[in-house]
Amino acid sequence: MRFRLTPRETSFYDMFSASADNIVTGSKLLMELLGADSASRVEIAERMRAAEHAGDDATHAIFHQLNSSFITPFDREDIYNLASSLDDIMDFMEEAVDLVVLYQVDELPKGVEQQVEVLARAAELTAAAMPNLRTMDNLTEYWIEVNRLENQADQIHRKLLAQLFNGKYDAIEVLKLKQIVDVLEEAADAFEHVANTVETIAVKES
């Protein structure tokens, strides 16, 4: 890591960690949704909405700190991109839960649980990686594994689409379910964006 002669604002690290921990909360709510009945899904959606609002607050706190800090721990653009990508993950997970409730989906197609499992694993890895931004240590395995998970998510998504278009579902149901699995795929993409941003930061700081 480069030697710096100036002090750095360190509260960003804690805020990134808080944002990532909140994403873990969101991923657990997604897991909870899978086996829930209709009434329970409404309550889970409310908790997910609260978690998404907490994510927004965390993101706004980072932006406020960014705008008021003269010295930052790494490039301002990278701080902005990392905070935005973390926020995107939470937005997509909340949207997926909300769509399940709004569309009154009785049964999710087989394979969605695999999507959610990938997201849960990516959330755990991301939360574990954020504290390491302080030292830039032990991050390589993180972004390699998240990129692997995103490739796995792509494969699951393609299989789900093939399943949706095999004639088992009527046209309206296909539209509903496709939107849900597409949003979950966007969440996986957002995890990869976070990992790629962390890799960019680590390369610059090396």
Automatic annotation (TrEMBL):
SUPFAM superfamilies the UniProt entry points to: PhoU-like
Organism per entry: Streptomyces poriferorum
A UniProt-annotated Pfam family: PhoU_div
InterPro entries: PhoU-like_sf (IPR038078), Put_Phosphate_transp_reg (IPR018445), UPF0111_domain (IPR052912)
Protein name as it appears in the record: DUF47 family protein
Family affiliation: Belongs to the UPF0111 family.
